[in-house]
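Fill in residues.
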């Protein structure tokens, strides 16, 4: 951190004016127009202006999360580059908060800066062919080499539905380390180098024609114990932090009015009066109101996050996101009639991100079908909302105390 970007006080910052002063100092030392993009982002991180609620020295200033909007607005007005958050969303929304909460000081210092800057892309190695909705039933094994309590781990198994695996340098990985314990208790959480020998990434072509997802095969992959996150056998607890943040990042994204899927439909309605019918009008009005309610609810959720950790409310937001996307995209296809049946491009690609609003109606309709599966199926999230938000009795589970190795698979 340079003198020009050093915080004005050693105490946590709570004043927007102080933050604006720090932003001005950063812009003076690193003018966006004449500074390399990566150099600017590194300087922003070092100044504590990456995510202001993170600790000093780790991209933040121990400031309230709500003040991030002040920083972002000042930098946007100055034409400063961002870190392309859609491209590195898994790192920002899932890996970073988990590393911050459970990582060692060395892990935080090693991973958070290149993650936020976008120099290292992350992916998530959680789901497996036999452990999707029932993630705790995962079978990928990690066995410690030798008897040393700090020995390397040898990992074998298969993961699936892995977004960005073809781009990622690092992965958050959960693997079974003790098959003699019940399924939730014998899991450990690791940080896996995707460039290591034994990591094989294969594309999974989807209904859209693209392969943004992948399947990943792990064959004798060696992970040093220094890349274990949390205690041995407590991986499920660590993973829950990841999953709660994942659902917030998927369902609670900040949007303007008519942002997201509702925008293209509303635009078509205004521009193409010949397509309108009374029945479609009523459906559009209903979905517009629901989309706006979801947007405002997401804003309230972000305000709650400013004073605490994400909770099960994120599951409710992700549920609403999936349902609305599917209903809105279905309405759009009907509104366009024969045009809605056209599909512009079936080229097999491995994209860097999902672009819902930059493609045509057919793509939105097909891609939204995955929204009720990815990031936790709607059925699982309904259970979470029922049990943890509404306080309803949990479903009977006959495998809760059975060792994983004795479960029927």
């Amino acid at each position: 951190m340079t003198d020009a970007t050093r915080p004005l006080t050693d105490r946590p910052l709570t004043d927007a004016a102080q933050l604006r002063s720090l932003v001005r100092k950063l812009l003076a030392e690193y003018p966006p127009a004449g500074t390399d993009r990566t150099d600017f982002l590194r300087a922003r991180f070092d100044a504590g202006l990456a995510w202001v609620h993170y600790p000093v020295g780790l991209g933040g200033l121990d400031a309230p999360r709500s003040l991030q909007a002040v920083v972002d607005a000042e930098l946007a007005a100055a034409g400063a580059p961002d870190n392309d958050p859609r491209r590195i969303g898994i790192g920002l929304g899932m890996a970073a908060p988990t590393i911050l909460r459970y990582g060692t000081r060395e892990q935080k210092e090693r991973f958070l800066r290149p993650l936020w800057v976008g120099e290292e892309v992350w992916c998530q190695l959680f789901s497996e062919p036999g452990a999707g909705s029932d993630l705790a039933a995962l079978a990928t094994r990690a066995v410690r080499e030798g008897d040393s309590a700090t020995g390397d781990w040898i990992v074998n198994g298969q993961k699936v539905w892995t977004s960005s695996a073809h781009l990622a340098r690092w992965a958050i990985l959960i693997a079974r380390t003790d098959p003699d314990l019940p399924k939730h208790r014998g899991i450990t959480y690791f940080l896996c180098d995707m460039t290591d020998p034994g990591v094989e990434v294969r594309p999974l072509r989807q209904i859209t024609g693209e392969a943004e997802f992948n399947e990943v095969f792990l064959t004798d992959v060696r992970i040093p114990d220094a890349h274990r996150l949390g205690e041995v056998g407590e991986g499920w607890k660590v993973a829950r932090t990841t999953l709660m943040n994942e659902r917030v990042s998927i369902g609670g994204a900040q949007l303007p009015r008519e942002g997201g899927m509702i925008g293209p439909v509303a635009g078509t309605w205004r521009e193409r009066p010949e397509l309108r019918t009374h029945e479609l009008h009523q459906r559009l009005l209903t979905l517009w109101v629901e989309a706006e309610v979801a947007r405002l609810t997401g804003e309230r959720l972000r305000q709650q996050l400013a004073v605490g950790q994400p909770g099960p409310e994120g599951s409710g937001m992700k549920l609403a996101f999936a349902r609305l996307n599917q209903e809105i995209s279905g309405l759009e296809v009907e509104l366009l009639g024969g045009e809605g049946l056209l599909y512009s491009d079936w080229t097999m690609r491995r994209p860097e991100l999902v672009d819902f609003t930059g493609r045509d109606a057919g793509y939105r309709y097909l891609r939204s079908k995955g929204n009720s599966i990815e990031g936790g199926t709607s059925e699982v999230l309904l259970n979470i909302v029922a049990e943890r938000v509404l306080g309803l009795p949990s479903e009977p589970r006959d495998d809760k105390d059975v060792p994983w190795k004795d479960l029927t698979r």
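Residues 52 and 60 are 4 Å apart (CA to CA).
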